Amino acid sequence: MGKKKVSESQTWQIICLLKDKTKSQQEIADLVGVSRKCVITTKRNYEKKSVVKELPRSGRPRKLTSRDESYIFRKVRINPTTSYRQLTFDFSSKFPNVTVSKDTAIKKPLLTVLDRSKRLKWCKERQRWTGQKVFVKRFANEKYHPKFCLPKLQNVGGSVGICGCINYRGTGCCSIYTGNLINLCT
Fold first, then answer.
1. Nearest of 53, 45, 12 to residue 20 by alpha carbon
2. pLDDT for the residue 124
3. GO MF annotations for this entry (predicted)?
4. Strand-strand pairing, 170-178 and 160-167
5. Are 167 and 160 spatial neighbours (Cβ–Cβ below 8 Å)?
6. Cβ neighbours, 10 Å, residue 75
7. What is the DSSP letter of 173?
8. pLDDT at residue 110 in the model
9. Boundaries of every domain in the chain
10. Residue 70 contacts residue 30 (beta carbons within 8 Å)
11. Beta bridge partners of 166
12. What is the pLDDT of residue 125?
């Protein structure tokens, strides 16, 4: 549940009702249609700053406009397996006045020395692996949509299994088989 933005008119209503001093904070919240916490926060901000409108927030200003984000979103929807490098290249060629990098698109966690050494060890162990991982960008409810699935055959190249039994007296016979279980029973 996210924060719901309170309009300037609602803020003025809260302040006027607070100055009137005839209603409790909960009654004001019910009248205006906000939470009691919102009334308390509005009162505190007004007493501190004597301003109703929302002041600019600190922090780094946004680099991308909503139009820029829409363009990136459309590109991802067309091809969900597009790499971040390709997305930044496409975006930079379309909008040369805005410079973006892979770091603009994704946040990286801070790593300790121990974390870095563990990651390096993990990568070295898997350096010769031939499988290539494909990252797909999709919504959670699109998990099984054919556009976001890679076709994969099961049981290619044969199979091996173990057949055995356990009863109240202990374990029974155990057989290792290849192929189907039906071949073992005949």
1. 12
2. 86
3. nucleic acid binding
4. antiparallel
5. no
6. 17
7. E
8. 73
9. 8-49, 63-107+130-152, 155-186
10. no
11. 171
12. 85
pLDDT of residue 1: 44
**CA–CA separation, 65 and 97 (whole Å):** 12
Over the chain (186 residues), what is each successive 10-residue block's mean pLDDT?
Answer: 72 88 89 90 85 74 84 86 83 83 60 87 81 76 81 63 75 71 52
Q: Which amino acid is at 163?
A: C
Q: How far apart are CA 76 and CA 137, in angstroms?
A: 7
Contact 150, 134 (CB under 8 A): yes
- Burial of 43-68, coded b for 16+ CB within 10 Å and e otherwise, reads bebbeeeeeeeeeeeeeeeeebeeeb
Residue 63 phi/psi, 5° resolution?
Answer: -90, -35
| Alpha carbon 7 to chain centroid, angstroms | 29
Measured CA to CA, the distance from residue 6 to residue 179 in angstroms comes to 66
Q: Distances in Å between the alpha carbon of 39 and those of 11, 27, 46, 54, 178?
A: 8, 10, 11, 15, 71
* Residue 112 to residue 83: CA distance in whole angstroms: 27
Determine the 3-state secondary structure of 122 from DSSP: helix
User: What's the CA angle centered on 168, arms 164 and 172, to 5 degrees?
Assistant: 25
Q: What's CA 49's distance to the chain center, in Å?
A: 36
- If one counts every other C-beta atom within 10 angstroms of the C-beta of residue 77, the result is 12
The overall pTM is greater than 0.85: no
Dist. CA 181–CA 74, nearest whole Å: 49
